[in-house]
Amino acid sequence: MRFHTLSVVVAVALLTSCAGPSPETRSPLPPPSKATAPPDYRLLKGFTEALWIVQSQYIEGLETRPLVIHALRGVDRQLKSRGVGVAVTDRAVIVSHRDAGAAPETLTLPLLPPDPNAPMEDVDVVARAVAFLEGRSGLGLDEVRDALIHGLMDADPEGSYVDLKRQFEIPGVASPDLATAGLDITRRAGTLTVIAPVDGAPAFRAGVQPGDRIVKIDGVSTTEVSLPDAMRGMRGKPGSKVTLTVMRDGWTEARDIEITREPVRVLAVQSQDLTDGITQIKVRAFQAQTAREVLARLEKGGMKGVILDLRGNAGGVLTAAVEVSEIFLDEGRLVAYTESRVKKHDQRFTTTAKRVYRSIPMVVVVNHGTAAGAEIVAGALQDWGRAQLIGTRTFGRASIQTFVPLSDGTALRLTTSEWFTPKGRSVRGKGLAPDLMVDAASGETPARDAQLTAAVAHLKSLIARQTR
After folding, report:
1. Of all residues in the chain, what percent carry a pLDDT higher than 90?
2. Distance between the two ends of the chain, CA-based, in angstroms?
């Protein structure tokens, strides 16, 4: 179970267990069956399965009507270049198709007032729209289905549909030779938002900052661009350029930032000795070996205090975040717990007996680029009074995504759960407040890094108190 492995450039929090819809979960839409199918129900194979999964497992319960509208608008967006148009009003769905040089053909489908006892009425509208579009300009059922499901997943700002053509382009999974801008992004309040740039990557050097809002990619508005498509837009050949139009708090207008793509590698753990026996351990991503790498640095000996630096860490493997937390906590401590629509999927993560560093003085440095799994670690250490947080408020990423496979080999990447700190705090949309607020300063050396300088000073006082 994990958010997703951040050994890559652009990422979002992801839980990779592939649990299908629970038979215990009640949904307004029944699972597909011949008994409930409209006459042309076969046209909706795949879409109805996806619709049922979203209704039964998406963390926010949604009725059929808004999901159907998302799906139909997805057809309009995805197939516009094929002459397809779908307009949705309060009373009707107007489906049109235009061949080159010909007058458009139009089908108007009335929308009855939503009836929770008859959800198939809305599904039947979709079926009739598909029947109208099938075969026009060579449109196949698979194309229309994919467009419907892409639109359906717009209901989940952090979700996506992984179709057959792109099933190996899962966010966070890339070839070693991938060239990109080096950004971790998400959607917040409907806007494409930067969680954090990768340290030293092209976007980092170009000045992109956590919290920046990307309003265009190469001049194209990101308003209706899915996360996977936005990430693909930032990828390209090494040396090629991408222009991000960025809006930042305090700016009066958006600015263009040109970035030269490069292959980007993320070093999950780095460390350096600072002064007076203090070691800074930077954890940039939670991967399978991250806890082992942190332990290796702690075990070198002679260390009097540790600064756990989680700045710019947008998450990673959930179990790895738990393993790093338990290095510093007593056995049996709760690290985090999750809540989901499917209650049997709720989980609690507690520390187990291992060789730990329960008494070594430590502080944790965080910033607005600290998100998801990194917030789990910071929140657990803060809740248990093990370490104080120094820096700025964290990003506030509490959602967990699950890859749910569909019967045809495609999958939904769906937000299914939310995690909470040991004391029941939610960071969703608000993040963790540091114990000591210190704004960032430019530069990489301790002399120019205000947050790191403050962490060293605080840690020295802790060490001094411990040695008295």
Report:
1. 58
2. 44
